[in-house]
Specification:
This protein is α/β, with parallel strands linked by helices and about 325 residues long. The protein contains 10 helices and 15 strands. Helix content is about 25%, strand content about 25%. Strands 3, 4, 5, 6, 7, 14 and 15 form a 7-stranded mixed sheet that branches. α4 links the parallel β9 and β10 (about 195-200). The protein is globular and about 60 Å long. The two termini are about 20 Å apart. The mean pLDDT is about 95.
Length: about 325
């Protein structure tokens, strides 16, 4: 028997700057009843990501629906099926869907994707941003054996996996950027990075030239701004540069930022600059889950993440993620 009520997190107001706790409201509401073709899921884990700050604005360039004031937020979640009348799902099935930020979710059966509970050792690992990391390394930057790779935003949920994947693809030198020396030390000790560039510790280009004296062959860019400009300056002939995120804009208090690019320099060095988004590469998700499960069991991959407990911690989770408080993904266990 399910609970009669559950809690959901609603957007209380649009942000005027950074994420603050008063932008959210936690409301107790009745647990919905599934009709034919619908699935009721008891959510067990939900993920937060930097893009959610962008979706809190009334309009954004992200190809996802913005959050509405007074309505629950949404995002990736994993949970257990409670009831699914008239569908091929059964109570107890583990599923992934996009209606996080609530303890129970009601959705059409087509929106719930059954997961193999034995594939990953931890259900929260299904909320990793590994598909995006794999996409950027394999299809965006086309990392090859022998490459020197620069990953910006390396301590985030995407970047902390991108460096590990680059190594699996044969990169001989992997450099990451992050916002603190403490995170930089962990990237080198725990997650396979060879060197780090610290935001705020001097000009990025100078640090990158010291870390990659022979230049970079591939860029996995989560940030944009000064870090992208530095990567362009240090790029070797034929380098492949993948734009995977835009944290400099997403987390800017002044709105969208722009990056000046010398197109003649790109042309003369035959550099590829490519934007890649996961919604064009959804076929990578099952491939990543298989790869991740094998890597976790063999010890060739790890899942860097912070885990907070209780839906009441979800606003804090997003706030702390945007403040750079954590290394890796941020997951809320409900």
């Amino acid at each position: 028997m399910t609970n009669r009520t559950h809690r959901e997190v609603r957007l209380a107001a649009r942000p005027q700057g950074p994420v603050t706790d008063d932008l959210f409201e936690i409301v107790e509401v009745p647990v919905p009843e599934p009709g034919p073709g619908q699935v009721l899921v008891r959510n067990t884990h939900m993920g937060v990501a930097a893009v959610m700050r962008t979706l809190m604005d009334e309009q954004s360039v992200v190809p996802m629906p913005s959050y509405q004031v007074g309505e629950p937020l949404h995002g990736s979640a994993v949970g257990s099926v409670v009831a699914a009348p008239g569908t091929d799902l059964n109570p107890g099935d583990l599923v992934e869907h996009r209606l996080g930020w609530r303890e129970y979710a009601l959705l059409d059966a087509a929106e719930a994707h059954r997961l193999d509970p034995g594939l990953l050792p931890d259900p929260a690992a299904y909320l990793s941003q590994g598909p995006t990391a794999l996409m950027g390394i394999a299809r965006g930057a086309e990392v090859r054996p022998g490459d020197t790779v620069f990953v910006t935003g390396a301590a985030g949920g995407v970047g902390s996996l991108a460096g590990q994947i680059a190594r699996l693809y044969g990169a001989t030198r992997v450099i990451g950027s992050t916002g603190s020396q403490e995170k930089g030390d962990r990237l080198i000790k725990e997650f396979g990075y060879d060197a780090v560039v610290i935001r705020g510790a001097g000009p990025i280009e100078e640090q990158l030239r010291r870390a990659a004296p022979e230049g970079i062959d591939a860029l996995f860019d989560n940030v944009g701004g000064e870090q992208l400009v530095a990567a362009l300056a240090c790029a070797n002939r034929g380098a492949r540069l993948a734009i995977v995120g835009a944290l400099a804009s997403q987390l800017s208090q002044d709105g969208r930022t722009t990056t000046e690019i010398d197109t003649l320099s790109l042309l003369s060095r035959s550099i590829t600059l490519r934007g890649v988004a996961l919604y064009d590469h959804l076929d990578l998700i099952p491939e990543w889950n298989r790869m991740f499960g094998q890597g976790l069991r063999e010890g060739t991959l790890t899942f860097p993440h912070a885990r907070l407990h209780g839906i009441e911690q979800a606003p804090r989770a997003l706030r702390e993620l945007t403040e750079g408080r954590h290394l890796g993904a941020v997951v809320v266990e409900l």
